[in-house]
Amino acid sequence: MWNNHNLIQTYIRPIVGVLIKKNHADKLLQKQKPLAKQIELVKANKKAKVTLYFFSTSDLTETTVKGIFFNKDAGIWETQRFPYPDVIYKLYGTKKEPGLNRNFLTQLQERKIQTINYLFTFNKWEVYKQLAKYEDAAPHLPFTIYYNTPDDLRRMLSLYDKVYLKACQSSLGKGVICISSLAKGGYEYRFYTNKFRVSKVDTFDRLVHEVQKFFKNKGFIIQQAIDLIKIDKSIVDMRAELQRDCDGDIIIAALPVCFSNSNAHITTHATAFQFEYFFLNFMKYSAAEIADFKNRIRDFLKTLYGYIENSYGPSGELSIDIGLDKKGCLWFIECNSVSSKVSFYRAYDRSDISRSYVNILEYAKFLFRNNTMSH
Predict the structure, then answer these.
(1) 214 closest CA partner among 180, 164, 145
(2) String of DSSP letters for 264-286
(3) How does DSSP classify residue 58?
(4) Handedness of CA 145, 96, 120, 351 (dihedral sign)
(5) Exposure string over 61-81, b if 16+ CB within 10 A, otherwise e
(6) Taking the model in full, what pTM does it have?
(7) What digits encode the pLDDT tens for the residues 1-31?
(8) Whose CA is closest to 336, among 151, 144, 117?
């Protein structure tokens, strides 16, 4: 297998390296406990038939990668020295990227390694500014400003009864506060830490104090609240799971509709339904109305996908949160470079989930094929 640190084994191409966190790599090897996504990729590879391994940035040497793979004959996860991958798929999202050191990124550039999805996390303010440049996207963006001083918050609360404050980089709903002006004076604010919380303050100065305590020194934006459709006391939005397929075409892998918990300000940590089921049973759309609306959403999402790629480069996977207001208008909420796929798992069948992982590996083959042809 080894000879003077040169790999002499031949591998099925492309070689797909799945980038995971160091603690997830340790869990795989020491406890033999894979995450659901890791299992799905191994299953998907029975169809895609690429060389597949998992690695963290601490597994790199100058010439090889200590990759983790599932040995199906032994039924265990093992390590082996692999060549650097042809294509990388990042399996986790994080606010900071401590593992993505400069040396690693330099290696990718020098070796011309392609990536299926973005290796970074989106900054909400940067994304907003990029999308606002486009005439057909701008009307679908809630009015947004960057917070610099308390006067920014005062101005937004003079314009809107309800606003959202969002950390520029956050996940799982933890960096979001919803503030409402109360009819009798003062403010109510809602946020999520390990559970949903609601508090009230009497004065603007007190509100600013609480906001600054919540965000500490993190940058955040202030955004007009969208008057989203509601079912009972739950707000509703959609998490579009978008991918490029084996031909590089954009497809909607899933479009779950997400309900918030009762009176909650976000739909994270909540219930999800399949798109068609929701609009048939809750909104009472006809089959024809559902088909028309889905086509409208598909066009909207593909347009947004294209604009994101114009700014950040090509990607084979993207999840975009969108909302429908009470007047029937579509709104962009945010996009995610790596999706947790929680709502996808909750709402869709095993076959839909499995197909989405096959798509990821088939897109890797598409990238590799096109790269090989262009050289």
Answers:
(1) 164
(2) -SS-TTSEEE-HHHHHHHTS---
(3) G
(4) negative
(5) eeebbbbbbbeeeeeebebbb
(6) 0.92
(7) 333 344 547 899 999 999 999 999 999 999 9
(8) 117
